[in-house]
């Protein structure tokens, strides 16, 4: 008997279910019914409004196969050229809106921040042990507690009081570059890590293989692998992959995730416990955690408060280390291939500060070209090219389009002439002053995101970067060990975060700075 006859003849549902051939028809039929019911509901929700234009998708898979996984932002730029500033697509059943322009990002994420400040729920977050980190929290009461805690040391007034500590850290970097220039990239990594750890816990890193710092760097390296966009999409489509037992051969993603989780918890708990111990025994060095622990009247119960402090503090390294380090790495590599930019910055310093002087924050206004270099680095090398995904908490309408509740991804469009050319002078007026327009100053850069979830560490990042950039330009001539490198640009390892690919550089002390460097 044919399978169709089976279905027609066997009105007995039990027998029908037992026939394997009938399942071949039933499974797709159930799926289609579910899909069309969902579509009908979605159509009703839209009330006849169109969705933003976007690429056609395949049933179930949507547009996932059209995305370039190593550089998804390139796909989004192509879609911008074809469909415009706001694009709709479906990714394995998840509706996603891509905001492809700074103008639309400001209109939606800033002006309508009440509903555009959520994060999409990703099974990956709990799987990797980062679900309670500030950056991953849904927009709600817990996030507001974290945000208030972080503001304590990240707000501009608090950041201003730590100028001397930024200068001290930049001098530490200069001293390491002078003593051991060959490992310049490693010094950069260590000093950036040291400054975030000091700010968060008041802990001073003692050696290269420091018991707190080393596992934190290891964690970031693992997170980059485990959070790659391809794995994230596959896991959201097939969550059972996260449950496969570790003993099954070939389940390398499970081993990566287990190690990432263990490090996430260890890095969150151990330095926090160190501060608690310090408080019991002595006066702890000033830090985010010690300030929060001493705070009265926080508005939440004790256990909840300790948990929130621990997680907000844990988020600082994850969010602040790699972003700052890779921006500085891009700066040094760019300087090595652009000697003309170094020469202009150094002559500005020589004239306005004098030779043999290391700049301080009081000198910042006298050095507009140094700021212009930093703005150009932030413009050209956006280390999180898709920022972090946002989500809307309710449906919305924009320019006649229906924006469904759900995932939003950001991609800033290059609004500059010749965006691929490294040219700091684009940030200067004809009289050599910095252009002052919203979004051109460093902490206002779109590289820090938009709206209520905009990077709260941007003022600290700006000062760390300025101190390091200004000090290095004053003290060293930087050039590539292989002169042939000058012909190429900076290359990147692509992923959620873009990481510049380092190359050997030479750091030659400038005239008048050798003794200054030796004394640091
Ligand atoms: C050059 C350096 C940095 C860059 C480019 C950067 C960029 C970003 C971006 C794009 C976001 C997501 C914004 C959004 O969702 O719209 C973010 C979030 C965040 N950043 Fe940064 N960041 C940097 C440095 C720092 C530093 C130094 C810290 C802290 C010490 C920090 C702490 C955070 C936190 C806690 C979040 C999560 C905010 C939330 O979800 O509410 N960042 N950052």
TrEMBL record:
Organism placement in taxonomy: Eukaryota, Fungi, Dikarya, Basidiomycota, Agaricomycotina
Domain of life: Eukaryota
Native source organism of the sequence: Coniophora puteana (strain RWD-64-598)
UniProt keyword Iron present: yes
Binding site residues for heme: 455
Name by which UniProt lists this protein: Cytochrome P450
Family according to the record: Belongs to the cytochrome P450 family.
Keywords: Heme, Iron, Metal-binding, Monooxygenase, Oxidoreductase
Cofactor: heme
Pathway: Secondary metabolite biosynthesis
A GO term for molecular function: monooxygenase activity
